[in-house]
Amino acid sequence: MSDFTNDHMILVIFGAAVATYLTRIAGYVLLSVVSDIPPRAEAALNAIPAAVLTTLVAPAFYAGGWEGKLAIAAALLTGLRFKSPLPMIAVGWSVVMVCRYFIIG
Amino acid sequence: MRESSEFSSGLRSGIVPALSAAPFGMLFGAVSVTQGQSVFETALMSLTIFAGASQLVGVELFGQRVAPWLIIASIVAVNFRHVLYSAALTPVIAHFSLPKKLIAFFLMTDPQFAEALKRHEEEERVTFSWYLGAGLVLYVLWNIMTLIGATLGGFIKNPEALGLDILLPIYFLSLVMGFRKRPNYLPIVAASALGSILAYATVGSPWHVSIGALAGILLAALLPPGKTKEAAQ
Fold it and tell me: Membrane-spanning residues where (chain A) (predicted)?
């Protein structure tokens, strides 16, 4: 069971693909069954994108090195000025590279 | 003519997120090959799963020879947010036919979802041509970058030396900031941040994604409805 072959690998990939597709249609299927959305449920639905995406940022900030924390903070400040992600990425990446090559050495 | 201009507008909407995701496609390809998967298996994952963070979790677990059901469960845990996304996307694409909806949900990724909601919020109707344009840019570039990464895999010894590790969180941060005019934005983001960090430090990855998100979503349901910063609709 633990030592799987190439054939198993392909099966696991297809299994993961089917499971992932099911997560992608599950919310739609649920809403088709439940037609009337109460206001609190709607507030919850509205909160989903920011709530989920935050969980992809905060632990990276928490677990990353100090140069990572500095880069994310710098990107946050950049984001207050510019709407597009590219300036944020450019600033954050530059901070990390400068720290790693000139300060950590 | 209208259809094709919608499609090219979709291509334009997709290009920035696709380029931001490109390094991760490469990173995934490289990590997957260095964990012992073939180029074919690596490409198959990007073609059929098409969900970057979960693919990286998957190859990490393949490398550790974890039981297959646990690998699939972990991939589902990372992708659990799709359940929430598809619920939120449903009213936005309500006018698509069923086959078009099924295609749209296959192409639904973090950036695709965010771009579609942004377009919907700007009171522009999300057409299927626009959605397909944006989705295909992401899908095609993701798969090309996977192949490049898988081919070059052996050469990237240390992604941190290239600063690749910081790109993904900053990209997601930019998406989070895009929602800052939503009702109760700050408390929701604070609850999710705190919840995900606590879960990360205790239960561990990948559960911090679902647990942190639930913290923010529950708070949103409990709080009195806040005002949107734009004029009331």
Answer: 12-31, 43-64, 84-103
Parent domain of A50: 39-104
How many distinct structural domains can be found in chain A? 2
B38 interaction partners in chain A (CB closer than 8 Å): 6
**A11 and A50: one domain?**
no
A13·B170 Cβ contact <8 A? no
A97 and A57 share one domain: yes
3-state SS class at B124: coil
Residue type, B182: R
B81-132 residue pLDDT tens: 898 899 989 999 999 999 999 999 999 998 899 899 989 988 789 999 999 9
Q: Find, in chain A, the residue whose alpha carbon is nearest to that of B173.
A: A57
pTM, whole model, 2 decimals?
0.68
Lookup: tokens for B58: 């998957």
ipTM: 0.77
Regarding whether A84 and A46 lie in a shared domain, the answer is yes
Say if residue A50 is in the same domain as residue A6: no
